[in-house]
Structures are given as C-alpha cells and as structure tokens.
Amino acid sequence: MGEFLVWVVWFLAAGGCLATGVAVVSLTNPFYSALALIGNLASLAVLYLLLSAEFLAAAQVLVYAGAVMVMFLFVVAYLGGRADAPWAGGPPLLRTAAVVAAVALLVEVVVVLGLAWGDSLRGPAEVSDSFGSPAAIGEIFLTDHLLAFEITSIVLLVAAVGGVVLGSEKERGRP
Amino acid sequence: MTGPGVGWYLIVAALLFGVGALGVMLRRSPLIVLLSLEIMLNAGSLTLIAFARQQGTLDGQVFALAVMAVAAAEVAIGLGLIVAMARRDMPLDVDQASALRG
C-alpha cells in the first residue's frame, strides 16, 4: 500500500512538473509564466522530498518560489504592458531547427538511459534517516566543501552588487 | 519505502531540460528566456539529487545547493539587465539586443 502511494505522489509531482514547464514556455503573459514556474518549483520540491532531500526541498520553496519569483513578479509589474511576450514570428526555418535540436537532445538522453537501465543503473542505496537533513548537509558543507561554500557567498555578493549597478537610476544620464 | 527508481527521475529531468531548451530557443522575450533557463537549471539539480540518492552520499545535494545559489545570482543580474533595457527604451527582444555581436 505504501509503495502504491509513493508511485501516485510521484506521478502527480512529475506530471505537474512537466505540465507547468510547458505552460511556462508557451504562455504569452510573463506574469502567468512566472506563476506557472512557481508551480513547477513546488512540484520539483515534492520530487526532492521523495528522494529524501528534505533540506533542499525546503530551500527550493523558500529561496526560489519565495524570494526569486517575487523579485521576478516585481520586475514584470514594473514593466507593465511592455513585458508581454507574444510568440515572435521569426524565420520558420530557425524555429523548426530549434524544435529538431531539442527533440534530438531528448532522444539522445532517453536512448542512453535505456541502454544503461539494465546493468549499470542500480537502485537507490540504503540511507539513514538523517540523509538530507539540515544538520547532515551543513556538516558536509562546512567541512568537505568549505571552499565551494565560500565561493558561493562571493558569487552571490558580486551578483547583488551587479544587479544594483545595472538597475540603478544613474544609468539614465549616460549616453 | 522504495517507489520509482533513479531512472524515472532521470527521464523527468531529461524531459524538463528539453522543455526548457525549447523555451530558450523559441521565445524572444528575455523574461521568458530567463524562466526557461531556470527550468533547465532545475532539471540539472534533479539529476544531481537523484544520483546523490542512488549513491547514498550527500555531495550531490551540496552541488544542487550551489546550483540554486548560482541560479539566484543569474536571475538578479538578468533582471537588472532587463530593467536597464527598459529604461533605455530598447525593445524587450533578445534578437534585437545584438550590439555585442562580432
């Protein structure tokens, strides 16, 4: 019974993920696109939970759906009607090529997966209950991956300063 | 609890990545392109987390956290660029913002 429930939740989350992803790409109003991406991130968080990544699921909802998407919605509101994004005309050849490239990429990945499915793709390992908990992640982040942690903070600082510089009012006076 | 194996998650991640790539290539609005990029990054994160679960080590999850931070930085810079474009009355169209083309 528990097994069956896990599959049901998995199908709901995966289906929601793909449906909202298609909605993000196909809608013409960026506001609705951003809302669809919030749904996408929420269903991804459910998939993370099924993979016992509790801390990442929480961080996903807090950082992405909470902070990043709110910033995005503010910019969409600031741009108003200019933000509307109708499907651009463009040369049909380019559009066809884009679809062919994306489908080729997908087929490649699925074929490789199919080849690996039988032998090398073994099932999930046995893990303890603390796998993916904030304590476990924090410990490995501050011991084995300390350099990555520090570099991440610098990247975020530079990005914040860059965002302020790019969007600051002084830009208006320059040619 | 067993549930779906790692391969199922990888298939979802591959499909998500394809959808995001289509969005980046087909749409012209920088806002939609940014959103599609987010989808692609998240597909990568899902792969990392699925393999972390398979191997039973936490390194993949730490990597996914770093990806999350980089995605936040990318959105901050991208939105700053879009606001700067709007301030200068440039059309919000990635095909027309080609001044750096060689």
Could you characterize what this model shows?
The complex is a heterodimer of chains A (175) and B (102). With 175 residues, chain A is an all-alpha fold. The N and C termini of chain A lie far apart (67 Å). The longest helix of chain A is centred in the middle third of the chain and has 26 residues, at 54-79. In chain A, helix 2 (30-50) runs antiparallel to helix 3 (54-79). In chain A, 74% of the residues lie in helices and 0% in strands. Chain A has helices at 2-26, 30-50, 54-79, 92-117, 134-143, 146-167. Chain A contains six helices and no strands. Chain B has 102 residues and is an all-alpha fold. Chain B has a single domain (6-87), classed as Helix Hairpins (Orthogonal Bundle), CATH 1.10.287.3510. Chain B starts with 5 loop residues before the first helix and ends in a 15-residue tail after the last helix. Classes of the chains: A mainly alpha (175), B mainly alpha (102). At the A-B interface, helix 1, helix 2, helix 3, helix 4 and helix 5 of A face helix 1, helix 2 and helix 3 of B.
Write out key terms for the chains shown.
heterodimer, A: 175 residues, mainly alpha, 6 helices, 74% helix, globular, B: 102 residues, Helix Hairpins, elongated
In short:
The complex is a heterodimer of chains A (175) and B (102). With 175 residues, chain A is mainly alpha-helical. Chain A has six helices and no strands.
Q: Tell me the distance between the termini of chain A.
A: 67 Å
Considering residues with a beta carbon less than 8 A from a beta carbon on another chain, report the largest interface and each chain's count: A-B, 88 and 73 residues
- Count of individual beta strands of chain B: 0
Averaged pLDDT of chain B, please? 86
- CATH H level, superfamily name of the largest domain in chain A: NADH-ubiquinone/plastoquinone oxidoreductase chain 6, subunit NuoJ
Helical stretch tally of chain B: 3
Low-confidence stretches of chain A: none
Percent of residues in beta strands of chain B = under 5%
- Overall 3D shape of chain B: elongated
**Domain count of chain A:** 3
Largest sheet of chain B: none
Helix share, percent of chain A: over 70%
Our count of helices of chain A gives: 6
CATH architecture of the largest domain in chain A: Up-down Bundle
